[in-house]
Design goal:
By secondary structure, the protein is α/β, with parallel strands linked by helices. The chain has 2 domains: about 1-130 and about 295-310, Glycogen Phosphorylase B (Rossmann fold), CATH 3.40.50.2000; about 150-295, Glycogen Phosphorylase B (Rossmann fold, 3-Layer(aba) Sandwich), CATH 3.40.50.2000. The protein has helices at about 15-30, 45-50, 60-70, 90-95, 110-115, 165-175, 185-200, 210-215, 235-240, 250-260, 270-280, 285-295, 300-310, and strands at about 1-5, 35, 55-60, 80, 100-105, 120-125, 150-155, 175-180, 200-205, 220-225, 245-250, 260-265. Helix 1 crosses helix 13 (about 300-310), helix 6 packs across helix 11 (about 270-280) and helix 9 packs across helix 12. The model has no long low-confidence stretch (mean pLDDT about 95).
Length: about 325
């Protein structure tokens, strides 16, 4: 097979979508010819036509996906779109307007939602994956100079990640520290709030993606209280693979991802949230969390994508 990923921001940012492209393309390229078009090339139909691809996978949605869809009128490739935008307008556009040959939902909940809008598009559920060797409890750590126990939250500093909830929960807990890793337009606001509530028990930091396994090994518990339209939440898998317990919002997608590796709670209720964190700190999660993470091995995920694409071009 000849496959191309259209990923405008590849090697510029380390979001779930770009990580997906890197992990899947590396594995598929062992048996197939795989290209990644980034920057302005990711939107070039001329390059796509000349490439004579079997499968085209646009990552950035909207106009990019629509152009790739119309391109099937002049080329014989199949169009595959993954649900990295999450439930909402972007993936509604990708399903109902773009109408790919196949749409990959990342959770059962998203697959159920997608099928309501899929007219002539096949819906298949394949989750994101995790590199179990890279993210592991064993290995070097990084000192973050915070009092233990340390609770970690990883995600963009934007409103729908709701980092403010975990700040309030740790404040109510009365001990331990909070480390938030990420960047975004809410940084100054969260920095001020964190210092006001937690003082020296709080830090916002940013690290290169290759250093994140060391960060997970350096903390005691993980929690990201983001909204229920989160497309998947790869950071939950990173935490689980690292042997951490996860305190997660109580919704169907998070239950599917975190499984027995965590505690589910209504994170809007700060008192309940604080109690869940306290419970989580008293449990040795390593075995349960690693077992849950093993369900999401990138090698197995890549095999599923390979089969889907081979069936698609028959």
């Amino acid at each position: 097979m000849k496959i191309v990923f259209l990923s405008r921001y590849q090697n510029k940012v380390n979001r779930g979508a770009e990580n997906f492209v890197s992990e899947i393309s590396n594995r598929l390229s062992e048996k197939h010819e795989v290209d990644i078009l980034s920057d302005e090339k990711a939107d070039s139909m001329e390059i796509i036509y000349k490439g004579n691809y079997d499968v085209v996978i646009p990552i950035n949605g909207r106009l990019q996906s629509l152009k790739a869809s119309f391109g099937r009128m002049f080329s014989k490739y199949k169009l595959l779109i993954t649900g990295h935008s999450g439930i909402g307008r972007d993936d509604l556009w990708n399903i109902a307007v773009v109408r790919p040959d196949i749409f990959i939902a990342l959770t059962n909940y998203t697959a159920f939602w997608a099928k309501k809008w899929a007219w002539g598009t096949k819906i298949v559920k394949i989750p994101n994956g995790i590199d179990l060797d890279k993210f592991s409890p064993d290995g070097s750590k990084i000192s973050v100079n915070l009092p233990k126990p340390i609770i970690l939250s990883v995600g963009s500093l934007v409103w729908y990640k709701h980092h403010e909830r975990v700040i309030k929960a740790i404040d109510k807990l009365g001990y331990g520290s909070l480390l938030i890793v990420g960047e975004g337009n809410k940084k100054d606001e969260l920095e001020k709030m964190g210092k006001n509530f937690l003082g020296d028990r709080f830090k916002i930091m940013n690290f290169k993606y290759q250093d994140m396994p060391k960060i997970y090994r350096s903390v005691n518990l993980f929690s990201l209280p983001s909204w229920d339209r989160e497309a998947f939440g790869l950071v939950y898998l990173e935490a689980l693979a690292s042997g951490l317990g996860v305190i997660a919002p109580d919704d169907l997608s998070r239950r599917e991802i975190v499984g027995d590796g965590g505690i589910f709670v209504n994170t809007e209720n700060i008192q309940e949230y604080e109690r869940a964190i306290e419970r989580g700190l008293k449990i040795n999660w390593v075995e349960k969390s690693r077992q849950q993470a093993k369900k999401f091995s990138w090698n197995e995920i890549a095999d599923k994508y390979e089969k889907v694409m081979q069936d698609l071009i028959k």
